[in-house]
């Protein structure tokens, strides 16, 4: 039985965040709970470079330390170097939101006296405060998964919410870039996100994104913006070529911070299950998310302005990166399905407002 934590005696906390953008967004309610429980503590977030951008800045985090796994912290020597860097900071408590044993090893080598997390990946013996994740419903949403773990140790928040933070100069830079692309303040903007970093099994088809986007733009008098990472430039180009009218194609050109500000500017969003989908949800952008291979019950967009479009097929969710059969989970989702879901959601939101 782990000793209870006294919030007044914990002053310096290391939080090991998760490695995927979407997971990191879903971790923000957990960060809120940590901040609320330890209001006097300094909170440092340890994350990989891409995720670090998401939290630079963030009002619940005092400092972000980059875990450069492909550079200075690569390999055994790199892990030891990172542990030494953390040891000098004299943390009271490590909260491991990442479930890998690597996180527990580094926290232990860093000499952090209290190490808290789930007992996944065979790391239970390295934790002073371990949580049995098998006690949870496997269908639990990721937001609740981490909050349940923290709640077991008395770390709770009065309000459960996702939070991302932007500076006004970042918003202004996006306004200028959109204006250069023909989108002015007051235009209704639909964002299209055809990518999914995890693998092609999660990706709906470019021509269907184009068809749905074009129809919604026609109905709503909207402008279209196409998003995508460096590996999705060709997909975005295919969508741009399929559209009947012009669009602003930003695929492969944005930093994480620029992506966040650009998504926040959108009035509606259409996406696969992906990091940008979760960013849109955190900013309260109304969205339609297309799900196939992944489990919508655990990773659906955490927002009351979102709707999931999916088809019941015998092999989904398979959780695979690449489809081993005929991609039926995505083939059965039509552009008309997405348009109908978007129109109904927008109508509902208009009535509520």
From TrEMBL:
Alphabetical list of Pfam families matching this protein: Glyco_transf_9 (PF01075)
Record-level GO BP terms: lipopolysaccharide core region biosynthetic process
Enzyme class name: transferase
Any GO molecular function: ADP-heptose-lipopolysaccharide heptosyltransferase activity
Catalytic activity, EC: 2.4.99.24
Keywords, comma-separated and alphabetical: Glycosyltransferase, Transferase
Keyword Nuclease attributed: no
Keyword Transferase: yes
One GO cellular component term: cytosol
Catalytic reaction annotation: an L-alpha-D-Hep-(1->5)-[alpha-Kdo-(2->4)]-alpha-Kdo-(2->6)-lipid A + ADP-L-glycero-beta-D-manno-heptose = an L-alpha-D-Hep-(1->3)-L-alpha-D-Hep-(1->5)-[alpha-Kdo-(2->4)]-alpha-Kdo-(2->6)-lipid A + ADP + H(+)
InterPro entries for the chain: Glyco_trans_9, LPS_LOS_Heptosyltrfase, RfaF
Database matches in NCBIfam families: heptsyl_trn_II (TIGR02195)
Membership in a protein family: Belongs to the glycosyltransferase 9 family.
The name this protein goes by in its record: lipopolysaccharide heptosyltransferase II
Source organism of the structure: Geomonas silvestris
Phylogenetic placement of the source organism: Bacteria, Pseudomonadati, Thermodesulfobacteriota, Desulfuromonadia, Geobacterales
